[in-house]
Amino acid sequence: MARKDLSPKMLKALHEGVAIPAHPLALDENRKFDEKHQRALSRYYIASGAGGVAVGVHSTQFEIRDEGIDLLEPVLRIAAEEVEKANLQRPFFKIAGICGPTKQAKAEAELAVSLGYDIGLLSMGGLNGWEEEQILERTRVIADIIPVFGFYLQPSVGGRIFSFRFWEQFVEIPGVVAIKMAPFNRYQTIDVVRAVCYSGRRDEIALYTGNDDNIVTDLLTTYRFRVNGQMVEKKIVGGLLGHWAVWTHKAVELLEEIKQVRDKNEIAAEWLTRNIEVTESNAAFFDPAHHFEGCIPGIHEVLRRQGLLQGRWCLNPDEELSPGQMEEIDRMYRDYPHLNDDEFVKAHLQEWLAD
After folding, report:
1. What is the model's pLDDT at position 156?
2. Which runs of consecutive H residues, i.e. helices, occur in 116-247?
3. Distance between CA 199 and CA 177 in Å, rounded?
4. Residue 330: strand pairing partners
5. Which of 164, 239, 324, 329 is deepest in the core (most CB within 10 A)?
6. Which helix (H) or strand (E) holds 78?
7. Percent over 70 (pLDDT), the chain
8. What Å distances lie between residue 204 and 172, 235, 260, 298, CA to CA?
9. d(Cα 183, Cα 159) in Å, to the nearest integer?
């Protein structure tokens, strides 16, 4: 299967930066797939002005791939159908999560292409026993099938730390079009940006934040390195975030506002305060106080309050809010009401839930 590259229009949008929420999974009280609310979520993200959706990723629950659950194809297909129905006149990226050893990842990439997906978000999780060269070779196999969004995932949720040399080689792979940096670590984030800047492909790779603990600052920062005697600059242009699965309309507005100011020589100190507001709301949703155990239920709880989900249910019945997490979400609504998009959702919810 030959890779279908992104069109010039799509590449331009990718490099200008868009907001891409990680798509959750809608279940009913019996933990069965809830297609009505799954479609409503996709419609919400499209209507919010997002520049794409990432489906089949951590927020969609990796268990969708398990035998007996078998929801990977339905969730990918339904999101793609909703994007096509919307008949958008702007670029919108359909991004499929791709997981597992090479054989599994190859099959998932081929499924994504068959359903019209544009890019594969290639997870490095679950490969802790692999050598870096094995992971690079797996990436080359997938990049021959579908354009690849690389993914640096934090170790606390199944990722691993990679060497700078790994990223130097990773960015040279044809077909790698973007990298999501989510190590939740400044040093490791810099490694990726520096590797891209050192590469002759630096202008072919868009950088996106997945650092939910530092979203605003990531998007405002210009990275600068001396490469062969010349100064090279690179920005993190957009975000592919589980955090942006909620309050998405306000997230899109935030990104657009940042894009208006980030090229200025002086950026108001107020942006540092806004970074902390967003980070604290993320702490309530993602539950770092309990090693992120409540992150998916936390996202679900916000969507449940808005009517976009019927409940917080996950495929794993043990996955629930952590002690005190509900109260923290309550506090975010109380302390930062300007961050939520409840009124936007309320105005459109019935049309998104319609058949």
Report:
1. 67
2. 132-143, 164-170, 186-198, 215-220
3. 13
4. none
5. 239
6. helix 72-86
7. 99
8. 10, 13, 23, 35
9. 8
Distance of CA 167 to the CA centre of its chain: 20
Q: Please choose, from the candidates 290, 276, 273, the residue with its C-alpha nearest in 3D space to the C-alpha of residue 157.
A: 290
- The answer to which of 19-28, 123-132, 214-223, 226-235 has the lowest mean pLDDT is 123-132
Tens of pLDDT, residue by residue over 87-107, are: 999 999 999 999 999 999 999
Q: By the 8 A CB rule, do 132 and 159 touch?
A: no
Predicted local distance difference test score (pLDDT) of residue 300: 98
Count CB neighbours of 126 within 10 A: 15
Q: For 241-271, b where at least 16 C-beta lie within 10 A, e where not — what string?
A: bbbbbbbbbbbbbbbeebeeebeeeeeeeeb
Quote the CA–CA distance of 109 and 106 in Å, as a whole number: 5
Q: Which pairs count as long-range contacts for 322-328, CB under 8 Å and 24+ apart, including other chains?
A: 322/287, 322/289, 322/290, 322/293, 322/294, 323/290, 324/289, 325/284, 325/287, 325/289, 325/290, 325/294, 325/297, 325/298, 325/301, 326/301, 328/283, 328/284
Stated pTM of the model: 0.96
H or E, element range at 161: none
State the Rg of the chain over Cα.
19
Q: What is d(CA 131, CA 153) in angstroms, rounded to the nearest whole number?
A: 16
**53: Cα within 13 Å, side-chain hemisphere:** 31
Residue 120, both tokens: 């594969």
Cβ atoms 110, 96 nearer than 8 A: no
The DSSP bridge partners found for residue 190 are none
Rounded-to-integer distance, Cα 97 and Cα 20, Å: 13
> From CA 52, how far away is CA 176, in angstroms rounded?
18
- For 140, counting Cβ atoms within 10 Å of its Cβ (0-12 exposed, 13-18 middle, 19+ buried), the class is middle
CA-to-CA distance for 199 and 256, rounded, in angstroms?
Answer: 28
